[in-house]
Amino acid sequence: MGLIQWATDPWGLSVPIHIAWFLIWVALIAGIAFLIGHVVYVRYFAKPRQFTADPPTPSETEIPERVARHSIAARTFHWIMAASMLVLLFTAFLPKAGVQFDWVTYHWIAGTVLTASILFHVFHASFWLDFGSIWPDRIDMKDAWHRTRAFFGRPAPLPRRFAKYPLENKLYHGAIMIVGTAVIATGICMMFRIRTIFFTRDPYLLSDMTWGTIYVLHGLAGVGLIALIIVHIYFGVRPEKQPITKSMIFGWMSREFYLDEHDPARWIVSRQQASRTPVASRSED
Amino acid sequence: MPESKDANLAPNAQVFGVGRKLIGKDYPTPDLYAKVTGRAKYAEDFHAPGMLFCKLLLSPVPHGRVKHLDASEARAMPGVKAILMPDDLPPPADAVTDNGTVIKANPKGERALTMEPVYQGEPVLAVAAVDELTAANAIEKIQIEFEPLPFVLDPLETLRPGGPNARLDGNIWIKPAPAGNQTPAPHLGQLKWSEADFAAARDGQLPMGKTPDQWTYGDLDAGFNRAAVVLDETFVTPDTSHQTLETRSAMAYWQNGKVYMHTGTQSTAQTVPAIARWLKVDPSKVVLISEYTGGGFGSKVTAGISLIIPALLAKKTGTPVMMRISREEETFIGRARPSLMGRMKVGFSNEGRIVALDMFVLSNNGPYDAQGDAGAAGRIVSLLYQPEAMRWRGATILTNTPPRSAQSSPGGLQGIMIIEPIIAKAARRLALDQVAIRRINCPEGKAPFGPSVDGTRPHATSAFLKQALDRGAEQFQWKERVARTPKRIGSKARGVGVSLSCFVGGTIGFDGLLVIRPNGRVSFQSGIGNLGTESVIDVHRAGAEVLGVSWDKCDVVWGNSEHNLPFTCVSGGSQTTHAMTRAAHATAMDARKKLQEIAAKTLGGAPEEYEVANERVYRKGDGRDLTFAEAAQRAIQLGGIYDGHESAPDLHRLTKASVAALAGQGLVAAAKDTYPRDGFTFSYVASFAEVEVDVETGKYNVVDFLAYADVGSVIHPRSIGGQILGRSVLGMGHALGQKWVYDPHYGAMLSTRFYQNKPPTILDVPVNMRWGALDIPDPETPVGARGIGEPPVGGGCASILNALSDALGDEIFRRAPVNADTVLTSFEAGRPMQHPLMAYI
Amino acid sequence: MAVIRDVMPSFDLLQPNSADEARNILAQRGSDAWVLAGGLDSFDWLKDRIKRPKVVVDLSGVDELRGIRVKSDGVEIGAMTTLTEVAQNPVIRENYGVLADAASMVASPQIRNQGTIGGNLSQDTRCWYYRAGWPCYRAGGNICYADTPEGRNREHAILGADRCVAVNPSDTAPAFIVLDAKFVIRSRKDERVIDAEDYFIGPDVDITRLHVLQPGELFTAVRIPFTWASSRFYFEKIRDRNVWDFPLLNVASAMFVSNGRIDRVRIAVNAAAARPLRLKSVERAVRGMPPDAATGEMAGKRAVQGAVPLQFNAYKIPLMRNLVKRAIGGVEEAKWA
Question: Which of A172, B58, B578, B767 has the fewest beta carbons closer than 10 A?
Fold first, then answer.
């Protein structure tokens, strides 16, 4: 069974037309399998998390009770994106799973919302947020190496606490960025094939082969998102991650959680900042 | 509406052939019962033991080159016996005419298979297997990839500066001048117009750039200067497939070095040399069996080159091979009429006389040999409307669409379609009656046509079209219908239309051959194709009439080239009835002369003292006689010229061979038609139609139709009626809806099936269509008969177009076919809404 | 792989003798099975090797699916009843003239002798791109070739298009809709009865099918209630040729008129969209009005609201307007001197 659905174009050329739809189920099962695997691992095998010796504690007064983590703009973006993403996934894949409804309009509108929100996010993150905070740094890499060695029972120094975002979070952001960019870029092209308010329709803008590739990429990215989003939601609802989830709702996390998980040296928080837009400091090693 | 229940108007109530026994009389043709009972065997009905079937791989691209081909998987399939590739075909061969002229083969002409297809649907290769299913499955296993090349569907697009060419080397054929007794092959050239040429035409008008061909006569400018009305109109005619019900299926096998070919053709005699040339074998090695042909209309003049595919596969496998052509394949390879994009400026005097006519046509030729439609359109228009001064300009443009060939009234139909709506419009402008304006322009007698050749314009043998127009108008009750009111009730509007029509109707110089057998029966050897017109049988009635033999003593031998057939015209250009009644007459006269000589030799006296009648040759006065049976026996005894051991020197080599083969079987008569003829032979028709249009839906129906023909002497009324009305319907299809639909992006035809390309059905034409014929003999042929196949076609179409504009006005259509969509949108908008220059919708 | 048309590939042909047997086969073979009724749609697909079912289930031997039966609450027509039988049946002609008219205008006499009611209602679209085997949306691909800047779409949709612009070609569908017919669909497990208009779906819902019939299901019969029997009917089909042609557009209506006012009315058109359209807003608008030309004009204008023409099918808008006008207001018969 091929991963790509091929068809013969009017000139007899074999061209891809979209992904094989069974990949939806593959992604769904992969996401759920990860989820089960992780639950089992955490329940039965995971060792308690250990970090290197406490970093020098900043004076209590410098750390607010509520550590500001996500601005209202950032939170609004996140939830708009989340909503549009879910709409996109459901409108894309429910019909393939046999639930018939008029999905295209919702899909392209949700896609437009997603695109707009992401454009906002890129702009916002570039100029107002600490752009670097989401990218893995050298400490992350070093710690990742140490954690991996420890996982396999090899001697390794304990990792440091996290900066504003744990490495997993950063990697997830990276993955969603790549997949999201693929799905959006291809999705925008695909809007030339349907009637929207944006473009003059031109289904012959690209060659049959290029179009096919675009549809396949869109599909692959789409099913990739199924798995990624299952994983994301799973972590969002895990008990130990709930403070992070709450921070995406309310904008802040507790001082205790902050001090437990994060390295104040790598994510500098001050009272002043708490009252303003929380700007994480550049993490410097 | 006037009903035709009136005895005077009943169809076919006319009496023809007054004073004659066979000519002008109805009779059942000997092929009739087999046809109506389904026992007639067409090519596809022949099955040879062990026969294989072949299927074709067709090009999906309108122009491209095979860049990758792997047939190994197909070849390895059980049941697959052979694959025929373009490389397996013999190279194109030169043709040699009877007077020794060598027509050089066009190296870029059409072949049966090709690695560089120039239209979608062109065959690339063929697979022979034990059955069609295996052959088709094998084709699906062939890996093939094409490199797409530039393509063009629309003649105007290729004429634009920088426009794509249909062939890599150009978009027109250029014919070099003949050198000695050689006609060199045409070569490809490029014709492009300037942006200014395109800009000069108003929207919807055909641009007119330079053309490779033109002719003129008379003073055009003076004509336009004194014209009371000058109209300048663009009109575009449709591309239409021939759509014979029998596709060009063929079955072939080889035996003792001879190829036996079963296929449909428009000429039994002349297809043999064509097959020989295509296969590069001697004509004596070709046997063609073609007793029945399911229609030709110009698409099977000498059958089709695709027939060599089963022949070559049969040779390769040593087994008979059947190639059944499907309807879709026939749409691709089965030939079509080129559409003409026409623009005509016509000046009319106050009386409606055409004083000047400037005609410009572009023919959409497809990718292969140039068709003559553009030129024929000009000549037919010049003959049929006798303009006092005329210029014709034309170009035949190559496109990546299926190959064209002559189709019933090639060029004639298109020319008539272009001019007739203009004449109708002019009559309205000048407040003239539509019959009257045609009457004043009608050809009469030895009417001239076309440009001067060596200082004089050629002329027709005769034309009695005015009488046909008058009789037709009378029978159609033209005046009453025109005067009738109201023209519109509710959403229904009625209109009447008349059209002139004509096409070539005969050639000369062919041979006839008959044998009076010792049992007294007369065998007429017929080399004519049995394509449904009945001329294969009919023409011999002229011979039987001369011989005074009763028809039930006559046998017609046809449909098998082994049965010793004479050199015969192809049944194209409506020449058969004319050409072959002349040959039959000449042959019967030869038989008569031989009978008289045999009688004189046997019974004494001089040959001229003897008469031939009632199956006897007898001496006037004393009643001494020989029956045909006795004369035939005597002929065998006498030998020499009497029983075919010698033949006349002017006979064609094919006839001579047949005479030799028949020698000794009885009195063998063979003669070439050497009767004089002053002028070129044409036949004429006046066509009348009434339509009812529903202006709320655009749908219209032809409610009445009558065609009155000037075809010389009528040979076989029922057959001529079938031809007049049948071919009128062929023409009507061009008005009513027959078309091609193409996707311009992929250059792919979308209308490959009947329900998509819409040939007219029996319910699209009036139930009681009527015909009549003048039955005035043509003075330039001994039997008086002219051909009738093609002349009615243009009138069938144009009378409907004219009836439509009578009902709705002139601002409805500028191209055909005219369908409900055209009528409805234009009527609503009050101007033609369909762009005439946009094709294939 | 090269493409070849017009040679039927091999498949298993199963010929059940009863509806139960047919249902069992369909249930077992699921989407591998192709239901063959009259064959007029099926054979095109099969011969052209575009649809490649493993199994063809020929219903021609299932007698219980044939015939027209009068019941207490209406008439039941077996799905395998031929169009000729429907067009000529006295009960149908007497009570449901609109259906008899519609059935008698399908294609050609030969096709009506062979074609069935179930097949006519369930047939696929005739979009020439789709039928040519091009990988369009309807064929599972990602483009509508007809709705491209140069696409040939004279016979395509003016309403309800969503990516795909194909139309439903059935002539009897609008007649059944105005008669408020119910379609009986059986699977091995159960039987469902759905309203005629709900049987058909547009590309917005499922771009690859024209109706809701699922693999494994069998369309067994049409039930027509007496609700609209002998009401005032109108049917008109506009086609290029007078025989052997699909509709450019057709219209069916049924109405009861009392005291010169439209009391109850149903009206439907087909070949305007991928599904036959019941014009409910027209029905509402004309209720209580006299069935005359003025009401017809109003109805026609309302019917085409929201119509979107493609490059070559703009004529369908005035055509639909005028057909709806006639279906409501009647048409003047021309009596020529």
Answer: B767
For B143, name the nearest residue in chain C, comparing CA atoms only: C1
| Distance in angstroms (rounded) separating the CA atoms of residues B660 and C335 | 69
Rounded to an integer, what distance in angstroms lies between the CA atom of residue C154 and that of residue C149?
13
Rounded mean pLDDT of C239-263? Answer: 97
Span A257-275, pLDDT tens digits: 887 778 777 777 765 544 4
Whether the model pTM is above 0.90: yes
B213-240+336-506+679-829 matches B44-149+250-323 in CATH topology: no
B482 with B694: CB under 8 angstroms? Answer: no
- The identity of residue C25, as a single letter, is I
**What's residue B612's pLDDT?**
95
Q: Which CATH class is domain B213-240+336-506+679-829?
A: alpha beta
pLDDT at A283 exceeding the cut of 70 = no
**Given this model, what pLDDT does residue C333 score?**
81
- The confidence band for A279, taking pLDDT boundaries of 50, 70 and 90, is very low
| Closest Cα in chain C to B841 | C152
Q: Are B836 and B815 in contact (CB under 8 A)?
A: yes
List the single residue in A14, A204, A212 with the smallest CB-CB distance to C148: A204
Q: Which residues of B touch A (CB under 8 A)?
A: 60-61, 64, 144-146, 148, 743, 745-746, 748
Domains in chain C: boundaries: 12-62
pLDDT at A131 over 90: no
Average pLDDT over residues A75-88: 92
Contact assignment for A193 to C206 by CB distance below 8 Å? no
Chain B within 8 Å of A13 (Cβ-Cβ)? Answer: yes
Amino acid C79: pLDDT: 98
A204:B745 CB<8 A: yes
Of B275, B235, B310, B321, nearest in space to B50 by CA = B321
What is the chain C residue with the closest CA to A209?
C142
Report whether the peptide linkage leading into residue B486 is cis, meaning its omega lies within 30 degrees of zero. yes
E strand residue ranges, B487-603: 488-489, 492-506, 511-516, 522-526, 554-558
Domain layout of chain B by residue ranges: 44-149+250-323, 155-199, 213-240+336-506+679-829, 511-672
Q: Which of the residue ranges A42-56, A221-235, B98-112 would you say has the lowest mean pLDDT? A: A42-56
Q: Which of B328, B741, B820 sits opposite C6 (nearest CB)?
A: B328
Phi, then psi, of C221 in degrees rounded to 5: -160, 165
Query: Which CATH architecture does the domain made up of B44-149+250-323 adopt?
Result: Alpha-Beta Complex (3.90)
Q: Considering CB atoms only, which of A12, A104, A204 is closest to C2?
A: A12
Q: Which CATH class is domain C12-62?
A: alpha beta
Neighbours of A (≥3 Cβ pairs closer than 8 A)?
B, C
Picking from A204, A205, A207 by the largest number of C CB atoms within 10 A of its own CB, the best residue to mutate is A204
Question: Is the Cβ pair B746, A12 closer than 8 Å?
Answer: no
What distance in Å separates residue A98's CA from the closest CA in chain C? Answer: 9
Backbone angles phi, psi at B455, to 5 degrees: 90, -20
Helices A167-190 and A138-151: angle between axes, nearest 10 degrees: 110
Which residue positions in chain B have pLDDT lower than 50?
Answer: 1-10
Q: Above 60 in pLDDT, residue C65?
A: yes
Pick the CATH number of B511-672 from 3.40.5.60, 3.40.630.30, 3.30.365.10, 3.30.460.10: 3.30.365.10
Beta-bridge mates of residue B144: B69
Question: Which residues in A48-79 are b (16+ Cβ under 10 Å) and which e?
Answer: eeebeeeeeeeeeeebbeebbbbbeebbebee
**pLDDT per position as a tens digit, C45-56:** 999 999 999 999
Q: Please, which pLDDT band fits residue A281 given cuts at 50, 70 and 90?
A: very low
d(CA C265, CA C287): 7
